[in-house]
């Protein structure tokens, strides 16, 4: 699953030749392009808006133009840079796919695009680090995030129905301790995925 499906990826995460400075430098996020040039941008994950204005030099968002930064439930900061318009306010809670602004060319940028990065922390300086130590690879982070979100959507009743109808009988006829342990592990995986406490060995 590609979380950036609707975009054209113009510059990947990692070492690259910088398009403005023309030196090899670590790219802290991904550059994504959607059309039209002022197309709406939606939150890849929900959270709390911590920044929604022009990024000032020294703030952790220098040269990044208009920046929206959203802290997710794991404490990671999702940074949307170079926006032409900002649609959210600091302190606001946004949900996944909510519009955060419009693509633009503000700050140090060679054309309308979204620079998107995910920082491991929100402070100091909004979690900015000069090296790669402070950021994660966005595609993998979102894939992991979405897959866990899907699991947490398992309905408690459905999970318990599967446990009662299939796993408990399987436990009863299991011939070895290893088999019972495996059935118990599966039951606990279902309980965990539906937000319930684990019960088995
Ligand atoms: Zn970039």
TrEMBL record:
InterPro entries, A to Z: Cell_wall_metabolism_enzyme (IPR050570), Dup_hybrid_motif (IPR011055), M23ase_b-sheet_dom (IPR016047)
Official protein name in the record: Peptidase family M23
Pfam families per the UniProt record, alphabetical: Peptidase_M23
Residue ranges occupied by any M23ase beta-sheet core domain in the UniProt entry: 25-123
Source superkingdom: Bacteria
Source organism of this protein record: Paenibacillus macquariensis
Gene3D superfamilies tied to this protein: Glucose Permease (Domain IIA)
Lineage of the organism: Bacteria, Bacillati, Bacillota, Bacilli, Bacillales
């Amino acid at each position: 699953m590609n979380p950036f499906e609707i975009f054209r990826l113009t510059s990947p995460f990692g070492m690259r030749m910088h398009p403005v400075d023309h030196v090899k430098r670590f790219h802290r996020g991904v550059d994504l392009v959607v059309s039209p040039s002022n197309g709406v941008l939606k939150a890849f994950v929900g959270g709390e808006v911590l920044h929604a204005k022009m990024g000032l030099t020294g703030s952790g968002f220098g040269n990044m133009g208009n920046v929206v930064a959203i802290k997710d439930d794991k404490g990671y900061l999702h940074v949307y840079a170079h926006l032409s318009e900002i649609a959210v306010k600091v302190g606001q809670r946004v949900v996944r796919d909510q519009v955060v602004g419009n693509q633009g060319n503000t700050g140090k940028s060679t054309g309308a695009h979204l620079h998107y990065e995910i920082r491991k922390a929100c402070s100091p300086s909004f979690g900015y680090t000069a090296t790669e130590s402070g950021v994660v690879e966005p595609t993998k982070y979102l894939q992991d995030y979405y897959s866990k979100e899907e699991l947490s959507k398992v309905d408690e009743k459905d999970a318990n129905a599967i446990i009662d109808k299939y796993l408990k009988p399987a436990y009863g006829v299991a011939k070895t301790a290893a088999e019972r342990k495996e059935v118990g592990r599966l039951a606990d995986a279902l309980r965990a995925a539906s937000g319930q406490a684990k019960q088995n060995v």
